[in-house]
Amino acid sequence: MSVANRSLEYREKVDAVIVGAGVAGAILAARLSAEHKKIVILEQGPNWQLGDLLSSQIWSRRLKWGGAPVELKGAHPAGHSFNMGWGSGGSAIHHFAQWPRLHVEDFRMKTLFGRGVDWPIAYEDLRPYYDRVQEQVGISGDHVREPWRPPGEPYPLPPLKSFKQAEVLANGFQNIGLRTGPTPLAILSQNYKGRAACLNDGWCDAGCPIGALAQPLLSDLPTSLANGAELRTQAAATRVLLSGDGRRAIGVEYIDHSGTPKRQHADVVILANNCVQGVRLLLNSATSHHPHGVGNSSDAVGRYMLTHFSAGLAGMFDIDMQNHLGTTGSALIGQDAYARPEGSYSWFIAPAHKLSDVLGIANVDEVLFGSALHDFVRRAAKGLGSITAVGEQAPRAENRLILSGTKDAYGLPIARWDNALDTREQTLFATMRAEGLRALKAAGAGQLWASERWVYQHIAGGLRMGAGPADSVCDSYGRCHDMPNLILAGAGLFPTQGAVNPTFTVHALTQRTADHLSEHWGSYAI
Fold first, then answer.
1. Local structure of residue 229 (DSSP, 8 states)
2. Which string of DSSP letters, residue by residue, matches 160-200?
3. 263 - beta bridge partners?
4. How many DSSP H helices and E strands does the chain contain?
5. Tens digits of per-residue pLDDT, 96-111?
6. How far apart are CA 36 and CA 24, in angstroms?
7. How many other CB atoms are found less than 10 A from the CB of residue 114?
8. I want to staple 400 with a disulfide (CB 3.0 to 4.6 A). Which of 109, 253, 303, 513 is the partner?
9. Straight-line distance from the first to the last Cα atom of the chain, in angstroms, rounded to the nearest whole number
10. C-alpha distances in angstroms, 184 versus 98, 292, 307, 336, 390?
11. What average pLDDT does range 496-504 have in this prediction?
């Protein structure tokens, strides 16, 4: 079915239409609807409720990307589908809730290390928002035991309980001269603001039906709906609509659940969908006024895509490591190797193990099958310990997303993502891997396993912020350089992403945008 073959149904104009019901979209919808703005949220996936979440690895796959495929190309193709969410709540429903802050140095990579690019804002601009968000959602951690942590208020909750695996692996890192501390987690170690504390059963990746893990279904989405915002799920945005002169966004075209093309007009258009689909939407919105895509006068849309490359390692111990307990993310973090000229990396240590899937026991030794696999799983179910290093990829123009010649079910080009790691990043992966093997040996592990190639985690960039349109798409508040009432939100704005998970920073950055929109609404909706 082609969009061009169907008549379009128009909808009454609203104050703002928001594409994407994940973290960024939910935050902005909650704030604007609280100020009596008429808001429509378009979400391509299903309408999840907290009661839909089940502690099952098979079921949890429904929370991962279920939309149009993405072509993965380049010398080192990146990973996509696992890193993206599907449905209301977005990827925050299945994220691991590891919430370290970006470091002060992450905002000044070009100035300090001569690589990458500087952010148009500094850490101090986001610090009050990091502090605000951690109090709102309830982060568990110990800032004193994170000697690398940048300045900020202490966490509102103590660290989650740790188990034998964390104790044993922490000794291994200490034995090779590296420090560890409790991972800051957006998971409740105690009851907090009407929410129940974590059960330490390790099902975070499948969603958290008791609400211990912070995500939009608990707060911002319900708040938005209570304030009168309208959420339309199974609504796939296909094009940003522009005024006749091409100077303003006037709405969004989308396909509804029945396959009918519709148009939602609005004073302000906000793209808060994941960065891959945000780029794709802008490129697919090309007109005679914007022949290379909306917001793309400087050819920056889709460039400087970012991901993390990770090294996963495991060791077998002859004691009960209690490795089925804890969280999907990690009990401990180590950042002694952060903020270096050759690139940053972080250690995430002692996750809870399940039988299969992303951190599954059965995936540790991929050559085993049959009775040998059964014997291995029996030993590993108690004796396995694992660690993961997350490395920083620098922004490069050639790591970009463009439109493919392949079309989706609606006749629109899908995204093609070209990605490669440079020599420095491949060397950094080898460094991470070697260090992890030393730590596991020093912890007393017998048999060892280490990934020969990197695995990709997290996706950012492609819509990066900057001081002007020469090499960026929007300003630090997400306002598109080319169009005053088109707002971009989410990890796509990151000029760099350090070596930490992006969700905490997305929260902080979006709250800053929400403040600016609230204070300057008249300059947007004109």
1. -
2. PP--HHHHHHHHHHHHTT---EEPPBSB-SS-BTTBPPP--
3. 10, 253
4. 11, 17
5. 999 999 999 999 999 9
6. 19
7. 8
8. 303
9. 36
10. 6, 42, 21, 16, 16
11. 97
- CB half-sphere exposure, 499, CA atoms < 13 A: 31
As given in the structure block, the two tokens for residue 388 are 């993961």
CB 376 within 8 A of CB 368: yes
Q: What is the phi/psi pair of residue 246, to 5°? A: 75, 15
Rounded distance, CA 449 to CA 386, Å?
9
What is the rounded average pLDDT of the residues 476-483? Answer: 97
Whether the pLDDT of residue 120 is over 90: the answer is yes
Question: Stretch 71-77: mean pLDDT, rounded?
Answer: 97
pTM score, two decimals?
0.96
Task: Please tell me which residue, 61 or 465, carries the higher pLDDT value.
Answer: 465
**How far, in Å, are 187, 223, 492 from residue 381 at the CA level?**
24, 42, 38
The fold adopted by the segment(s) 3-524 is FAD/NAD(P)-binding domain (3.50.50)
DSSP string, 361-412: GGGSSTT--HHHHHHHHHHHHHHEEEEEEEEEPPP-TTSEEEEEEEE-TTSP
Task: Please state, as a whole number, how many other Cβ atoms lie within 10 Å of the Cβ of residue 115.
Answer: 17
From the CB of residue 83, how many other CB atoms can be counted at a distance below 10 Å? 21
Checking phi first, is residue 26 left (phi over 0); if not, alpha (psi -120 to 50) or beta? alpha
> What residues contact residue 303 under an 8 Å CB cut-off, 6+ apart?
397, 398, 399, 400, 461, 462, 464
Give DSSP secondary structure letters for 72-122. EESSSPPP-GGGSB-STTGGGGS---B-PPPPGGGGBHHHHHSSS-B-SS-
The 10 Å CB-count burial string (b at 16+, else e) for 488-518 is: bbbbbbbbbbbbbbbbbbbbbbbbbbbebbe
Q: Which residues contact 136 (CB under 8 A, 6 or more apart)?
A: 219
Q: Which amino acid is at 486?
A: L
Domain-wise residue ranges, the chain: 3-524
Query: What are the residues whose beta carbons fall under 8 Å from the beta carbon of 5, sequence distance 6 or more?
Result: none
**Stretch 64-72: mean pLDDT:** 95
Model confidence at 2: pLDDT above 50: no
Site of tokens 């006068």 = 297
